[in-house]
Amino acid sequence: SVTEKTSGLLRVGFRIDNENHTQLSFDLRDENVIGSGTELGLLLYGGTRNRGYILEHKSNRIFDTYLTYKIDAFYKFNDVIVYGDAPQTSDNFFTRIELGEYRQKFYGTSVSLGTQVARFGNLIFKGTYQFDEIKNRTDSQTVNEKIKIVSLMVSSTIDTQDKYPYPENGFYFYGYYETAQTILGGDIGYTNI
User: Fold this and answer.
1) What is the sign of the dihedral through the CA atoms of 159, 70, 54 and 154?
2) Model confidence at 93, in pLDDT bands (50, 70, 90)?
3) Alpha helices of the chain — where are they, by DSSP H?
4) Buried b (16+ CB within 10 A) or exposed e, 127-159
5) For the whole model, what pTM was predicted?
6) CB burial class (10 A; 0-12, 13-18, 19+) of residue 8?
7) pLDDT at position 182 over 90
């Protein structure tokens, strides 16, 4: 006779830095939705200068296979300060001043499908459909712009370390190849490795 533990979970995070100031994060999720072995989560984070809202559904194993998937929808923004050089008053020192500020917005959805490779790694394929916007907030020379990006990514993680958190043998590798091309329906193309 087994009594299953509660699958509801709340993680709370806190961060302070000099650019974005105080930020909080809340990760609310059910790690076993209706006994299906899948996760449904809502991640909320940010402060006065940045925020993000991510809703995700994922499964570490699909039925009895080694396949995994993740589907998410997201909306994020951050305010970026543009700096410039202040008039130089000495040959030995320089100072920077704020010239303006703009806001970056990212929203869209992504779907990932992958598999475990042997006992030491995984291989993940991911497709993303998103919009990136830039809006001038104060005195920035940035031009308001909205771009659609459609990208495909393949990534792999290999971990042969013998123990956690302080391994003595083995190695850890994470690598990816991401491409967005206009032929996929996006406005611009790029490649990241």
Assistant:
1) positive
2) confident
3) none
4) ebebebebbbeeebebeeeeeebbbebebebbe
5) 0.83
6) exposed
7) yes
Which three-class secondary structure string do you get for 54-101? EEEEEECCCCCCCEEEEEEEEEEEEEEEEEEECCCCCCCCCCEEEEEE
179 band by pLDDT with thresholds 50, 70 and 90: very high
pLDDT computed for residue 58 by the predictor? 95
5 pLDDT above the threshold of 90: no
CB 132 within 8 A of CB 149: yes
Residue that the structure tokens 């040959």 belong to: 91
Q: Which of 189, 187, 170 is nearest to 179 (CA)?
A: 189
Residue 39 bridge partners (DSSP): 58
3-state secondary structure of 183: helix
- Asked if the model's pLDDT at residue 90 lies above 80, the reply is yes
Number of CB atoms found within 10 A of residue 83's CB: 11
